[in-house]
Amino acid sequence: MIVPSIDLLDGQTVQLVGGREKALDLGDPRPWARAFGRVGTVAVVDLGAALGRGDHRALIEELVALAPCRVGGGIRDVAQARAWLDAGATEIVIGTAARPEFLRQLPRERVVAALDAIDGEVVVDGWRTRTGARVEAAMAELRPFVGGFLVTFVEREGRLGGTALERALALRAAAGDRALTVAGGVTTADEVATLDRAGIDAQVGMALFTGRLALADAFAAPLRSDRADGLWPTVVVDEEGGCLGLAWSDRASLAAALAEGRGVYRSRRRGLWRKGESSGATQELLRVEADCDRDALRFVVRQRGAGFCHRGTAGCFGAGRRAGVAALVRRVADGATLRDAASYTRRLLDDDALLAAKLVEEARELADARDADEVAREAADLLYFASVALARAGVPLAAVERELARRALRVTRRAGDAKRAVAS
């Protein structure tokens, strides 16, 4: 699939030709990260750090919060590598420092070795120093220590002349069971599709930024359909993964959805369908995902208004769509919105001291519980009061899940000792 690339230099999004000549200055990277993040992982390259011209640490931390990011450029010590993983980078890309003794100190599945090459020879130090090593030999040495490789064909980088397809396909075998991404010259949707069929991702920058390759065309390139009308079935889910319904997409609706950042589909009766245009039940498009066979899509959306279904319900599969914690949090939030003066939830929302006391009380009861049934009951009580605290602050469950996902990416271990007041 496509891996859009954002290169950073002097605080701006740039594109270089051959790693040296600045061809484009594209301004603030944040809007690019939001747009590119709708199709998956974004490669963020700190050219400043790679070239010894300062780093973009604070800026990249913002980008990591906006989109799933693979971060690289100038990572030369383990502490720095771990810091990016702790900050929420899905992966880190290690170039010059990619040596077995360095890599074995990091979680293999989240490390990508960057092998930048000129005519098949690995170059380092911002593409300025030739090493004499061939890419295949470097892959063989590093394969036990990484989850994947990024191979950049430097002589093609930024030139919009097409990538080295035959070379890329040969490297697929050298990568073995590790993931492989190639960069440098990828310009057309056909190239993206060819690489995808071989199990290779295409990292693209210049072609996207110049408009030679539209984001929707790049994403759709590997997709196929066995329908006469060419439509792709599209499962629509909310932020919590709850299924809202089934829709259909084609290239035009996908392009509109990605450009506008909203739920846009292809109705088999009405044509292009912008969800909520007449009802007000609009959707913010968070991301689009293709299934493993490349013949179906999943839209992850933030639903607003009455819901997805034309009958005014949250989803098309009935009231049983939500269960467990998600259902609890939504019921409490809805109750807070209705401001039912007679409800216990309303009383808790209106009395901060009572809510605080109940949170502490229920947490203590859960800590003291031992029997399995008792633990389940006390945990349910605590989750209810926690959901009231979320409703009071207007925080959706999806925000909690995002925070949990961010923490799950940390690699630095903490002592986790109790604070003195709690321990006593």
Structure description:
The longest helix has 22 residues. The chain is of the alpha/beta class. Strand 5, helix 4 and strand 6 form a beta-alpha-beta unit. The protein is built from 17 helices and 18 strands. Helix 12 packs across helix 15. The radius of gyration is 25 Å and the shape is globular. The mean pLDDT is 92. The strands form three sheets. Strands 1-4-5-6-7-10-11-12 form an eight-stranded parallel beta barrel, surrounded by six helices. It has a four-stranded mixed beta sheet with strand order 14-13-18-17, covered by helices on one side. It has three domains: 219 residues, TIM Barrel, CATH 3.20.20; 72 residues, Ubiquitin-like (UB roll); 85 residues, MazG-like (Helix Hairpins, Orthogonal Bundle), CATH 1.10.287.
How do you describe this structure in short?
By secondary structure, the chain is α/β, with parallel strands linked by helices. The protein is built from 17 helices and 18 strands. A hairpin with a 5-residue loop joins strand 13 and strand 14.
